[in-house]
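Write out the bound-state structure for magnesium ion.
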Amino acid sequence: MFETLTGKLQEVFKTLRGYGKLTPANIADALREVRIALLEADVNYDVARKFVDDVQAKALGAAVAKSVSPGQQIIKIIHDELVGLLGSAESSLQISGSPAKILLVGLNGSGKTTTAAKLGLWLKSKGRSPMLVACDVYRPAAIEQLQTLGRQTNVPVFTLPGELNVPKIADQAVRVAPIQNRNVLIFDTAGRHQIDEPLMQELVELKKAVRPQEILLVADAATGQEAANVAAKFHEKLDLTGFILSRMDGDARGGAALSMNRLTGRPVKLVGTGEKTSDLEVFYPDRMASRILGMGDIVSLVEKAQESVDAEKAAKLEKKLRKNEFTLQDFLEQLEEVQRMGPLENLLAMIPGAANVKNL
Ligand code: GDP
Ligand code: MG
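---
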């Protein structure tokens, strides 16, 4: 995931690192490239523009720390903005309540039924007792698919054969749950090829009947910003609590993940990374951002340097070095400065590509 964007950003960063000094002009040049990279990753146009504007404002305003190169300063700003774009912090599922209720909605083929099974398995691993509820009643194959997945994962599936009234099915499931000692209900719903009024109406009614803690849109990450547009429309009608992006394994661009949060104000909570029922991961914005930037953990390194290196002292030292006045005492202080940043091995591991050097 995100390979395309990572590749493009690496090129921009290489140029940025080469600049001895940052000027408004070369910042603008670099950020123009960043914007193109985002658009090529299928990020929503307005989202990409605002992102670049925000980075630009911060980059121009930031007093350049003396302990890091100007290029790296901007990379740090881009990282922080990316984390914000992806949703700031991990957004855990609200699964309190007895039973807790999670409604999965989305277009046809977006991965709802598969995700329901994945979620069941995942909740079980967290010590919960989930039950899947078959609310996609129009195609018998849909119920069978859920039952098969339920058997595979050893999670019970609630169905009312022949019943087409979806709120009624949901209501029954809620009644049955405590009898069967089930404390989380996952409702698999019907989709459509496109958003239409009857579907939305059905989901609105189901929501009213169920009063779920979570109403999550399952969206196909591979459809890029179209997924984000669909998300915005569902959100308008249903006031979603968040998203699960399926097929992240098949998406090299990342446009959906990068646009979703800005367009709706709701977080991506989980991602599907394969067809197996175990292929579900929690979405961590900060780790995703590092992954997108493909740069080891340069961010922590910069932070460490900012924390522990005395910038004034460093400047004085540089002067001394230039004038050939560098003494043994200065050398000792310099060593202590590096020591304050922690074991050398740990520092090395944070430098992209340098993790292997220690094995030489
Ligand atoms: P629904 O119509 O929304 O219920 O979608 P399904 O759950 O039936 O999924 C449609 C197809 O997408 C199935 O073939 C799934 O195996 C596949 N699928 C779902 N999630 C993922 C995922 O995270 N990665 C991959 N590679 N395939 C997925
Ligand atoms: Mg389905």
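---
The radius of gyration is 25 Å.
The pocket of guanosine-5'-diphosphate (ligand 1) is lined by residues 106, 108-114, 191, 246-247, 249-250, 272-275, 279 (CB under 6 Å).
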